[in-house]
Structure formats: structure tokens, C-alpha cells
Amino acid sequence: MSRIEQALSKAAQERTSxxxxxxxxxxxxxxxxxxxxxxxxxxxxxxxxxxxxLAAEQYRQLRTKIIRAKRLFSHNSFLVSSALPGEGKxxxxxxxxxxxxxxxxxxxxxxxxxxxxxxxHKMLGINSAKGLSDYLMGKANLEEVxxxxxxxxxxxxxxGTLPSNPSELISSDKMGKLVPELKTRxxxxxxxxxxxxxxxxxxxxxxxxxxxxxxLVIYANHTPKEAVMDAVAELSGATITGVVxxxxxxxxxxxxxxxxxxxxxxxxxxxxxxxDSARQGREKKVK
Length: 287
Hints:
By secondary structure, the chain is of the alpha/beta class. It has a domain at 54-119 and 167-286: Rossmann fold (3-Layer(aba) Sandwich), CATH 3.40.50.300. It has 13 helices and 8 strands. A hairpin with a 5-residue loop joins strand 3 and strand 4. Helix 2 crosses helix 3. The longest helix has 20 residues, at 54-73. It is globular, with a radius of gyration of 20 Å.
């Protein structure tokens, strides 16, 4: 029997043993909500519901940083974007929203502000007949475009009808009023905006000035350094919460050595070099 087969056999035995254990046996609390049905949800999101998955622990770390920004500075609106297409920004935005919704206190609404190539509705398996663009064009009211997802405490505003003037809609006064409306409409709400890539498209840069902070997604060993530098330069007027280094396999291999101690590994890497230094002065004032 190969080592892989042995590992799979051992894992199966452990699962069987766990199921047959006494119901009175104490076990550590798990703060993870798993919806009754995941039908229609993109398979890439499923791992986030497993408390011991590689991705889930990293998203919980990012959630901690966002909750801290909310507590210290009352920041509760965050833009998730990337320098270039295909870096995993939408998966990151949705997984982050799900992770926050799994917490005890906060509710979340994710807004698909990518009015060029929207995908939030597809990944969450929701109807996108009307959405953000329809609201901004006056063709729907806000209540019509807010959709409850299959995940507890998570709502979504899909992109809606693809417009011919996405940048103009994002920069409109109505969009400027929508952000504070979503921020303050309900207590303990966090708003996550999924937006287009930053380089060559102005939508994200415009929206970054309307939200509290920005999360930048970078594809490890894929995104050119020049593109990252251009994106950071474009966001010079915004506060960058952190940088999500997607598909950083070296970090996963490093932490895998400690899987028996921690019961999990790490599949994503996060760096927080840009936003922290700019925020240190404000944190001292708050203290």
C-alpha cells in the first residue's frame, strides 16, 4: 500500500471513529455556519465552510484585520480588486464575505461593482435580473436589487444589466450616496465591493475613493511587479487594508510541517505592508 493510500485509509478511520464517539464527549466549539444546501454555489467556495481547510484559516486572519479596522476606525466598507484580470479577486471577495458572515456579530452585503464582467451572481447561484446598474440608472429601487443568499447573514447586490457607460455610473452622485446608505442601513453590517481590475480601468480607482479601505489581490509568481506597482500608485489616495497573495504555495509547504500541532495548513499568503504603516499614527490617537 502506498503512502497516499495509507493516509487516505487513516483519514477514513478517523472520520468513522469521530462519528461513533459518544454524544456527551466534549469537543472544541466551531464557529462555522454551513448552509443547509450549497446547490448552485461555485465549488471553489466550498472549502471556506471547512473549519480546518487551508483557505478558511487564512480568510479568518483577514477577517480579524477587517473587524479590527471596523472597531478602531468605524471602517466597514471594503473594496476588493486586483491589478490585472484572472488573479482571483472575486473568489477572494466572496470568501471574505462568507467568512465574516460566519462570525457571531456582523452581517455582510457583497456588491458586484464589476459592471463589465460580473460573476458574483454566478458564483453564489443567485438570480441577477436586476442589480447595481439598474439601481444607478433609476430602473429599480434598492430593495429590489438586494438579494438574500443561501448563506446566513450574507446578502448580495448583483451587477444587473450590463450598461454601456459603467465608469459614469460608478462615478455618479447616486453611487456616491449608495455607499454610505449601505454602510449605515443596518447595525453591524460590513460591505464588500467586488470591482474590476485596477490597471487600465478607472472604475476601481473611482470607487476606492468612496469606500473606507481596499484589499488588493495579487497572483503569486504571475502578476508582473510593474503591474502591482502601477495598481498601488493608482490607489495612492486610498487606504490599503492588506495584500492577498493568492496561490502562494511556498507558504503552504512551510506550514504543512506543523499540521499535527495546529490541525491545519495554509494555502494562501497575506502581506500587510501597505496599509499598516499609514494607519499607525491613527491607532496611537485612538489609544
